[in-house]
Amino acid sequence: MTTFWFLSYLLILICLSLLDDGCNKMFVEGLGVNWGTMATHKLPPKTVVKMLQDNGIKKVKLFDADEATMSALAGTDIEVMVAIPNNELLDMNDNDKAKNWVRRNVTRYNFKGGVNVKYVAVGNEPFLTAYNNSFVNLTFPALRNIQNALNDAGLGSSVKATVPMNADVYGSPTDNPVPSAGRFRPDISDQMTQIVQFLHENNAPFTINIYPFLSLYADSHFPVDFAFFDGASQPIMDKDIAYTNVFDANFDTLLSSLKAVGYGDMPIFVGEVGWPTDGDKNGNIGYAQRFYNGLLPKLAQNKGTPLCRGYIEVYLFGLIDEDGKSIAPGNFERHWGIFRFDGQPKFPMDLSGQNDPNKWLVGAQDVKYQPKKWCMLKPGADISDSKKLADNINYACTFSDCTALGYGSSCGGLDGNGNASYAFNMFFQVSDQSPRSCNFQGLATVTDQNISQGTCNFPIQIATSSSWKLLQWSLVFLMPFVLLFI
Ligand SMILES: *[C@@H]1O[C@H](CO)[C@@H](O)[C@H](O)[C@H]1NC(C)=O
Ligand SMILES: *[C@@H]1O[C@H](CO)[C@@H](O)[C@H](O)[C@H]1NC(C)=O
Ligand SMILES: *[C@@H]1O[C@H](CO)[C@@H](O)[C@H](O)[C@H]1NC(C)=O
Ligand SMILES: *[C@@H]1O[C@H](CO)[C@@H](O)[C@H](O)[C@H]1NC(C)=O
Ligand SMILES: *[C@@H]1O[C@H](CO)[C@@H](O)[C@H](O)[C@H]1NC(C)=O
């Protein structure tokens, strides 16, 4: 009798897998996260790995193959995507250098108790129009050399090279009015076709980053509801399919683009998706919560998209806030974490999509902070010289993170004095509270009172290793000279 039930169960499973569209077969289920490390004060990698484990996160995507990170991941079973940064793509066009890279960053960790490397990301959004075609002809040869090196090392069946792409590989929304019209951008369509063909030959996934927040950021007429998952008042009709969110529309535009070049059945990974919590009028906790409250249950229920039902492999962006990231794309860039810079959750979130309070994110443990001291505009300071004040604020914000001060951000409501204190404190914290870093030509003073105001948190940085100290000291020593010349 048991055998009968077992066989029926098996049969059902087989039928279900046949029903699957094919765009998402073959993977172990579960959410991954992007672990970026562009922070001035990094949590120790071991602390982060413990945090991943405590939260049941079994997959990470890195932006390099940093030794300290890799050794912290060693011996865990966490699946890892290591990465080759764009500025190394040229080197990877050289076959020997590619072989060497694979040896040093993949093969080296391939032993029992090593690192479970499953993917190599070759470049990061190399075809972004902002890069002026710098990587257009470098990406495919690099991908080919890396996968071939993996194959030669005997790792080809377990480690796949892929290229995380930005959604602009299929042009602007006006180029693709409906998802079924999706095509790759004409200027890169040859390169895209080569890449897709090669990925397919090697059973490797296509990786796409999807950012509903950026759709909203880029276009003030973008319907807000369409960025989230709770239904849109004006769905986009694509023949008989109603699209109610831009995530689905974006994913299916890719699927149509792949179909158009003959590979509609490729596995697709979402390499990055998430919502920032500060640094823009739409970057806040409320919207981030609304976004994840829609995304996570949708993923957990394997709803897929209209053209690709079933499980989708997804890596959230990102794990921890990074106060050292470039803000060229916008102030929000430093606020993508589901955890703050210190590894504490920003808001309750259940990654399994069940909204179960027992599964809410748990913070990093044993985090070491600097003392509870803040730097502020000295009460009664002579601020009649407005240029002097502005120059000092400017200096502080050049070398620390003031992105929360912008319009609509968490500290956007501060008055001029509050602004100055915020800037001074951020510089003081990033300088590890060295006493000289809270002077600003006599305008600033240290306090042990928490000077946070309303929604604006004046943070205390975490304690850091010595590697940053030299840079910090030089900044502090340089300050009087730099100010002399502004
Ligand atoms: C690859 O490994 C080498 C040797 O450990 C290291 O120096 C290099 O930074 C690694 N590459 C990346 C992108 O992390
Ligand atoms: C791309 O070109 C623009 C305009 O010529 C320039 O301002 C920008 O710095 C360039 N970006 C890169 C990454 O080369
Ligand atoms: C890439 O290569 C093609 C074919 O060789 C060439 O026509 C094109 O100008 C190159 N593009 C860039 C940006 O170098
Ligand atoms: C505070 O600083 C921000 C960012 O530098 C600026 O946009 C804003 O106008 C300032 N507000 C006041 C009241 O000075
Ligand atoms: C300072 O006060 C804010 C707002 O009350 C609070 O969120 C924050 O945790 C406090 N910081 C410290 C270091 O106690």
TrEMBL record:
Keyword list, A-Z: Cell membrane, Disulfide bond, Glycoprotein, Glycosidase, GPI-anchor, Hydrolase, Lipoprotein, Membrane, Plant defense, Signal
SUPFAM superfamilies, sorted: (Trans)glycosidases
UniProt membrane topology term: Lipid-anchor; GPI-anchor
Molecular function as annotated in GO: glucan endo-1,3-beta-D-glucosidase activity
An annotated GO BP: defense response
Locations listed in the record: Cell membrane
EC number from the UniProt entry: 3.2.1.39
X8 domain sequence ranges: 373-458
Broadest EC class assigned to this enzyme: hydrolase
Catalyzed reactions: Hydrolysis of (1->3)-beta-D-glucosidic linkages in (1->3)-beta-D-glucans
One Gene Ontology term, aspect cellular component: side of membrane
Signal peptide: 1-25
Residues passing through the membrane, by range: none
Similarity comment: Belongs to the glycosyl hydrolase 17 family.
PANTHER family given in the database record: GLUCAN ENDO-1,3-BETA-GLUCOSIDASE BG1-RELATED-RELATED
Name used for this protein in its record: glucan endo-1,3-beta-D-glucosidase
